[in-house]
Amino acid sequence: MLSFATKIVRKGVKMGLLDVNDSNFQEIVLNSEVPVIVDFWAEWCAPCKKLEPILEEIEKAYNEKVRVARLNVEENPRTAAAYAIRSIPALIIFYNGEPADTIIGLHPKAYIEKLLRRYL
Amino acid sequence: MKEVDLAIIGGGPAGLSAGLYGARAMLKTVVLEKQSPGGQILLTDLIENYPGFPGGINPEELTKRMKTQMEDFGGEVILDDIDGIEKNGNLWKVNGWENEYLAKAVIIATGSEPRKLEVPGEKKFTGRGVSYCATCDAPFFKDQPVAVVGGGDSAVSEAIYITKYASKVYLIHRRDKLRAEMIWQKRAFENPKIEFIWNTVVEEIRGENKVKELLLKNVKTGEETTLPVEAIFIFIGMNPNIDLVKDIVELTPEGKINVNLRMETSAPGIFAAGDVINIPYEQVSIAVGTGAIAAMSAVEYINKNFG
């Protein structure tokens, strides 16, 4: 899955953030060898959409050192509940399979990067 | 280092309006936005009181239109988080996370952010039932009882919005009447899901992993009660974002930027507009109007000092 997504990027095909779900969360996020930022979002949440361009920039800037993924909380209630998501946008930085930091609400890219760098 | 004529900090309605006027004056104009354009209006679902849009307009759509209109005249929005402004000869140097900007004039349009209750449990349960954004979080509380705190436009209009999802909305207000626009008050009083709890403040937010109940205190009688709710939405006003300029420009005792009718601050070449200035109302129409004034004053200032 990881290499597949990477391949698409390398081909230069424009894609959004990598979508993860209840069934592949373990494999893609928890088993990842690099830190993963997961963006918990929903269609109804306008500020969530504002985070996307910021996350895409972060993904580009940190290339293979960090994975950026997003999870639709409406379609994936199991994972959303597992991390007690009751407010979005919510970003969780997963490090070694554990939620290491949570960012609730919209924050500047600089803020997200500062937290992220703790895990690099 | 990027050299510009006019640097506008903040890409909400005030900043985008200022950007439009700056760009139309043929100034090299940049709007520096730390997240993405729109500002606080993005937290609401519909703007009903901005003239020209009967039936209301979606805040994302309004933002997009303002941004496009400004860009049509050559204005530019740059995503950057500004953390300092300093004098540099007769210019101002604006320092960002991504870049530095050297500007002839600066407009502070940094807006405001929701004020916190500052009670025990608020921080602990943020994201676990404590929320400052109804459009983001109300759907998590479908068919559950929630509380809203406040008595102004945001509190009352968002309480009404939340009734689309919640089984019950307790509107907790420290006074015995609301401050919101009458149209909001009328809608709220007519809404069967909203129950008003007057003369009451929240003393504590309690729970284990998530919000379970509120400790309330009646300010008239001193009586304390608990209220079981799954969430508390807090709309008790806004705090101006003044960190960037608090040592450069004069502030009011309330901590807003003191401007005159030309939107001039106490620092020559620095203007301000929108929620961050000493106007007691936070409205899109006011932000847009003061943004226009700030930009026109900045144009005059630049012509006079650099012409």
Q: What would you say the CATH architecture of chain A is?
A: 3-Layer(aba) Sandwich
Number of domains of chain A: 1
Q: Please bin the fraction of helical residues of chain A.
A: 25-40%
Query: Approximately what portion of the residues of chain A adopt beta-strand conformation?
Result: 15-25%
Oligomeric form of this entry?
Answer: heterodimer
Helix content of chain B: 10-25%
For this structure, the CATH topology of the largest domain in chain B is: FAD/NAD(P)-binding domain
- Determine the most extensive contact between two protein chains: A-B, 28 and 29 residues
Total helical segments of chain B = 6
SSE map:
The complex is a heterodimer of chains A (120) and B (307).
Chain A: H1 2-10, E1 18-20, H2 25-30, E2 36-41, H3 46-62, E3 67-72, H4 77-82, E4 90-95, E5 98-104, H5 109-116
Parallel strand pairs in A: 1-3, 2-3
Antiparallel strand pairs in A: 2-4, 4-5
Chain B: E1 2-9, H1 13-24, E2 29-33, H2 59-72, E3 76-79, E4 82-88, E5 91-96, E6 100-108, E7 112-114, E8 130-131, H3 134-137, E9 145-149, H4 153-162, E10 168-172, H5 182-190, E11 194-197, E12 200-207, E13 211-218, E14 224-228, E15 231-234, E16 238-240, E17 270-272, H6 284-306
Helix pairs in contact in B: 1-2, 1-6, 4-5
